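A common beginner's mistake is to predict each chain separately and then try to dock the pieces by hand. The better habit, illustrated here, is to supply every component at once so that their relative placement is modeled jointly.
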Amino acid sequence: MKNNSSRNKILNRVKKSLNIQSTSITNNPEIDINIDQELKKITPSGKELLIEQFRDEVEKVSGEFIFVPTLLEASKPIVDIFNSEGVLEIATTAESECIEIAKYISQKFSKIKFFSTADYTEDNRKIKFTDINTSIVNASYAIADIGSVVFCYDKTLTSYPHFLSDHVIVLVNENDVVANQFELFTKLDMETAKNMVIVAGPSRTADIEKVLVLGAHGPRKLTVILYRGKN
Amino acid sequence: MELSPKEIKSKVKSAIKDDSLRKAVYNATVSTGVTRERIISEIPYWEKLRSKAHLIKKETIDNLDKYLELFEKKCIENKINVHWAVDSKEARDIILKIAKEKEVTRIVKSKSLTTEEINLNDELVNSGIETLETDLGEYIIQLKKQAPSHLIIPALHLSKEDVGKLFEEKLNIEYTSDPKKLLKVAREKLREKFLIADMSVTGANFGIAESGAFCIIENEANAHLSISLPKIHVALMGIEKMIPDIKALPYFLKLLAPSATGQKSSTYVNLVGGPSREKYNEGPEEVHIILLDNGRSKILEDQDLRETLYCIRCGACLNACPVYQEIGGHAYNWVYMGPIGITLIPQYLGEIEGKHAPYLSSLCGACYEVCPVKINLPEHILKLREKVVEKGASNIFEKTGMKIWSFAAQRTKIYRFLSWFPTKIQKLLPNGKSFPAPGYYKERILPEFDSKGFRKRFYELERSSKNEK
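With all components supplied together, the output reads:
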């Protein structure tokens, strides 16, 4: 097989070349570098300060941050967004938090229709969800020091509402906020970490004369609603 | 691409004379440098991060065979099809074969320098497959039929007016130079293409050996749409992009975004660990990864230059380089440019073919200062110059010049005379006229010689310091 011979050829060349010991020119005296102490120094101590940092960083990456005491109370700012944007169709994932919010809002506002990815399969999901401008999704984690939200596909089972809508509203449980990416990757098991995305704000580009424009190919707006979780 | 010294010289000369190009390149590189500085000032452990990333890369590259085999094994477990390509042609053939077997007619691509390296687009288009770049900068230069001029900002050399005119001509829209309106046009055109594409081709920033997954970092979400909408996803990755495991990834994430774009974090960090359709009922049915050698295993042979394979393609060295700031990316005439480019060109293409490259540097060391993985670029550039000379590839003027210098340097009186003579000649030249030295034009004037000379100045200093004591 041609490809197999290429595999062996490349690996043999690599092995042959590696027989020569490398010398790293860089003067690097610290062989065992540990940044834990430095990270600790700049990580806010306590949940409240961590959330404050998360809020600041979300805003720095052009996201909007809203804090609510409970998950169901997230419905109020969400309905305000719907009213101000004239939204009647909402995309959601099939995660329990999204279902709960959708159910609650639908009971009060019958005009607003929710569309869950679970009700659509393969190609018709792609078509349907590209037409819906607003979505509500749930973050698997949030990262305080970079104002990011994390979506693990093993939990979300989709990424269409996260990327195809113009305005993405992300629900974040305060217990899922981690300090930084180092902490995130110690929390995630290897299997979950294989299929995921870390998102910092709405999509953007500065490809024309370095002028920053939000809403490149993905969401134009990202609203993070953080709610108090049950301990 | 033509890499003859004549071609390169003429490109460099015309770049230096193009004021609007120089202004665009200078503004973009300097502003990125400033935002980079601001962001890293908020990361007090930046230097430790650089050292750690350097060590992780050293460990991976020094054991690359083991990590490649582990990556392959884990990818297969994750149902990712693994292909190996010795050179550009083989990589193109693999992609074309996949496309033909699946009767692909439309491909969306997300920004990938490696696909530029193998010159993929022409091959696909010549085979009748519609191939569209989806990163805004890449889309612009594809419409303009140009190559990228920067590793991260491909259309850095174009002004918003240039882009406005291009869109007016190619996309039949009313002229506008407003980046927001231009982006809106591109977004609408491309969204449609994402939805109907049969296959996507992307690069990959990191291959995670222990997970059998790979990472794609971006800001526009075009890479995400490319990997989640078409039924087939093909990723092309150089064999040097390995990292050992997922715990190593945050070091590189922390370094890459500030170095590349002056952001604390890139907007999207995508991790791909297999076809998602079976698991999540959407996205690709097939994921392929092509591991490209194309000269990389040869680079490993040199125990010092091996370090150039640590590069994470952030472009920080380009932004810091005074030569790149003056000539932009096209003058290098190859896919990789700037300080990292000039080390890779002779290594990939051979010291004879790429002999001009190591000389496109002032050896000021700014590239080493900013490199997030501490590649000692000035050392490598010097070593490559040595290799060019050893191969006998330096030009006749350089050879003769060095012989004359060597002769004079061994004879004090002659050397003194040769150091003194130009200072006298210079005084005879009309005001503002540059001393006639190779490489110096009206845009780049040779500074005035010091009429005292080093020896006189040294003795004066010595005397004054003695007097002070």
